[in-house]
Amino acid sequence: MADSTAVDPAPVVVDGRPTGEPLIVLDHVDKHFGALHVLQDVNLTVHRGEVVVVIGPSGSGKSTLCRTINRLETIDSGTITLDGKPLPAEGRELARLRADVGMVFQSFNLFAHKTVLENVTLGQIKAKRVKPSEARTTAMEILERVGVANQADKLPAQLSGGQQQRVAIARALAMRPKAMLFDEPTSALDPEMINEVLDVMVGLARDGMTMVVVTHEMGFARRAAHRVVFMDAGQVVEEADPETFFTAPRSERAQDFLSKILTH
Amino acid sequence: MDLMVIADNMPAYLAGFRLTAQLTLVSGAGALVIGLAVAAMRVSPLGSLRAFGAVYTELLRNMPLTLIFFFAVLVLPQFGVVLPFGYWTAIICLTAYTSAFVAEAVRSGINAVGIGQAEAARAIGLTFGQSLTSVILPQAVRSVIPPLINVIIALAKNTSVAAGFAVVELVATGRRLAQQNPGDVMLLLVGVAVFYLLFTIPAGQLANLLERKVAFAR
Ligand SMILES: Nc1ncnc2c1ncn2[C@@H]1O[C@H](COP(=O)(O)OP(=O)(O)OP(=O)(O)O)[C@@H](O)[C@H]1O
Ligand SMILES: [Mg+2]
User: What stretches of A180-241 show up as alpha helix (H) in DSSP?
Assistant: First the structure.
């Protein structure tokens, strides 16, 4: 974790302009679930080192957006490129791409039959053909970093939700991804465990990880995000830096949404 | 009526039993391999494989086994495929038929594991095959074993269909012995039944035991 003594990486955004080159680019992306038009002409560019928070009402397509980026969902039209390359179709090529994009799920989805350590070594050994001893060393370093190294030999079911989610983050980080996707990573957690996960995520953001985070945690957005993307009914309605978005949203739909979540 | 009629014909019984056991073991092993492959097809990312797997299981599973034997014996030769009569025809038909049930049992075990596990496996870059072998099947195995034992029990009983196709397994043996000793038909057939039950009852008990264990582990 980057502590206060670490050297800050170069600023990601200067004068409201991202300094990194585009890493994730969605261009005119459309997707349907049957008759439901879940993504409607979505355009989104995430630059290297940028942290983008996606926010919006339930059913607006946030999860779907996230899942199309590593092709857990296919799209009907448009293109998605990662680091300049279009997403490959099914096969080995796609598997390699997925290793480059870490994904953290709301429900953790740790491999239930494997220990914490094995959860973090599996991808390295199988997908990257790293030697098991080397994979273990890497895994322990990352588990240390997210603060669960002392749980390495336990099964996921023996851990608290917050610990499980931190292991899930470690599992994704072990693949040395270029970007990380988080789909409501704290929504399934008891309130007292939310911060331990958010702290890990803020640390990642400070270290310069490119992140797309679906979350309603405004604290996180304010602390770590460079940009907030507001979605409603399958459309990207508004994009702004967090301060602007939360204090002076432009669109009526965003104002309406914020008034609802702020009164709760 | 005389119990000695069973003892006297023990060599014939044993020969029949050996053949029944052989049909069960060889077809069972073949059905496990093919059924596993078909189950993998049914959850694969390729639509064409999924469709093939679905047609394969639904066709075989929903036809009477006897009809499959008739197809193999009467229809395949018209297409130039002549199976050696008897033993190997029986093995092939029993394997094909049983593999559809194996595929179905394995598939429902895979579905019980939960989509989240498969998505997480894919998300860290495992290929379809790797997700299946390292993440999905190891978790499915616990819930799949009891239904698979029941599939094998059904197979053991189904081998008797081969009796109608020149394979002298247990039931065909019983029929022969009954024709030779018309006075002892009941006893001779009870003898046949005992040989089946010797295998099927313990196997059924084992399936029940494992099923309870899986239920406890939940
Ligand atoms: N596999 C699917 N099949 C059919 N419809 C789906 C599927 N997945 C999602 N949907 C529908 O697509 C819409 C968008 O879903 P999505 O999960 O992306 O929304 P979301 O913004 O993440 O919502 P939430 O805040 O509730 O997680 C919803 O109406 C949902 O019911
Ligand atoms: Mg969602």
Answer: 191-206, 218-224
Q: Is the dihedral of CA B8, B12, B15, B17 positive or negative?
A: negative
pLDDT (0 to 100) of residue B218: 52
Burial A103-139 (b: 16+ CB within 10 A, else e): bbbbbbbbbbbbbbbbbbbbbbbbbbebeeeebbebb
The residue behind tokens 């309605």 is: A237
DSSP class of residue A185 equals T
Mean pLDDT of A113-136: 96
Q: Cβ–Cβ of B125/A123 closer than 8 Å?
A: yes
Confidence of residue B1 (pLDDT cuts 50, 70, 90): low
Q: What's the B124 CA to ligand 2 centre distance in angstroms?
A: 20
Minimum CA distance residue for ligand 1 atom 5? A33
Q: Which two tokens stand for residue B192?
A: 């046949």
Q: What global pTM score does this model have?
A: 0.87
- pLDDT tens digits for range A106-117: 999 999 999 999
Instruction: Nearest by CB to B120, from A92, A99, A105: name it.
Output: A105
Q: Which of A29, A36, A73 has most ligand 1 atoms within 8 Å of CB, for mutation?
A: A36
Is the model's pLDDT at A6 over the cut of 60? no
**Ligand nearest to the Cα of A65, by number:** 1
Ligand 1 mean position, distance from CA A33 (Å): 9
ipTM of the complex: 0.89
- Which chain A residues are Cβ-neighbours of B134 within 8 angstroms? 122, 126
* Domains of chain B listed by start with CATH number: 4-217 (1.10.3720.10)
